[in-house]
Specification:
seven-stranded mixed beta sheet; 12 helices
Length: about 325
């Protein structure tokens, strides 16, 4: 989806509602962070748009209804202006795509390609980070380069994502036998400590605040994908970019096309086999100058390309150009 300013602005009053029926963190990523930026950009251009969002459907008809992984009842908005936002779990709505005039993959180009094979108006936009998060990462890098931080290795994700971390346990145990390192696992609400062989493992409750704090302390992060195709190839580099945006370099999974593309842009190796993961960990831990340069390049890439400022500009273009299609 383009992000340049439309040649002709749609100055008609518009009622736009982003519907997030499920209390998932994807609502924060794709709606809660984006709507304030979209409102700001629309107001700066003098567009008389009313932009709302929430877990309830609007009580009166709207001009555009954007649905995050949910299918609305008929009558809320014309089909041609009802839009599906799909980060994952395509199987939830695959048989009902005809209920939408547009479908937007907000996760990966691979999923967008699949959607384009079955829907005439399929779009793709990248998952992005807030300017505040990116600015926090800039300050983190200014205070301490990764090579000057504690010997912490960071992993973050949902409990389901632990399916990607657990196969790496032998690799991490081997790495801990030759390197003084502690693994911090940021997930769920559990607080505990354990050992994986020589590796000290600290479990910490997930929250944006804890992630930002630990990313500023950790020397390096890892983001292995889950084993299934839908949870690897069809995913994006969101977890990886979130870490780089916070100022912490991260090794990603070579099975994820978007991870490979982003990692190439900042010079970070990717890994798939146990030997590749171990080699990447050893290499980066022992080459501080390279680690610090990768962190700076990755953060700059997130700042330049993956900010919600860009996402809001894409939606601005969409509403101005597609309403009269």
């Amino acid at each position: 989806m383009p992000e340049e300013k439309p040649s002709a602005l749609d100055c008609r009053p518009l009622r736009i509602h982003f519907w997030t029926p499920h209390p998932w963190y994807s609502a924060v990523i794709h709606v809660d962070r984006v709507v304030p930026q979209l409102r700001e950009q629309a107001a700066a251009l003098g567009l008389p748009w009313q932009i709302t969002f929430g877990d309830r459907l609007p009580e009166t008809p709207v001009d555009w209804l954007l649905c995050l992984k949910g299918v609305p009842p008929a009558g809320v908005c014309p089909v041609e202006r009802t839009v599906l936002l799909l980060p994952d779990d395509a199987d939830r709505v695959w048989g009902r795509l005809q209920r939408f005039g547009h479908v937007v993959s907000v996760t990966s180009e691979a999923l967008a390609s699949l959607l384009g094979a079955v829907h005439p108006h399929a779009w793709f936009m990248d998952e992005t980070e807030s300017p505040e998060w990116i600015e926090g990462g800039r300050r983190t890098l200014e205070r301490a380069a990764p090579s000057n931080r504690q010997p912490l290795l960071l992993w973050h994700g949902t409990r389901e994502s632990m399916l990607g971390l657990q196969p790496l346990r032998p690799v991490l145990e081997t790495f801990a036998r030759e390197t003084a390192v502690e693994l911090v696992v940021l997930t769920g609400k559990e607080e505990k400590a354990e050992r994986w062989g020589d590796l000290r493992v600290r479990h910490t409750a997930w929250s944006p605040e804890n992630l930002a704090a630990l990313a500023s302390q950790a020397r390096l992060s890892i983001a292995p994908a889950r084993p299934t195709l839908a949870d690897s190839y069809l995913k994006n580099a969101g977890r990886l970019r979130r870490l780089f945006g916070a100022g912490c370099p991260a090794i990603g999974d070579a099975r994820v096309a978007d991870v490979v593309k982003f990692s190439e842009g900042c010079g970070m190796p990717v890994a798939q086999t146990p030997d590749e993961w171990l080699a990447a960990l050893r290499q980066l831990w022992r080459e501080p100058a390279r680690l610090d340069e990768i962190a700076r390049r990755g953060h700059a890439l997130v700042s330049e390309r993956y900010s919600t400022v860009h996402t809001a500009a894409q939606w601005l273009w969409f509403f101005c150009t597609q309403g009269g299609r």
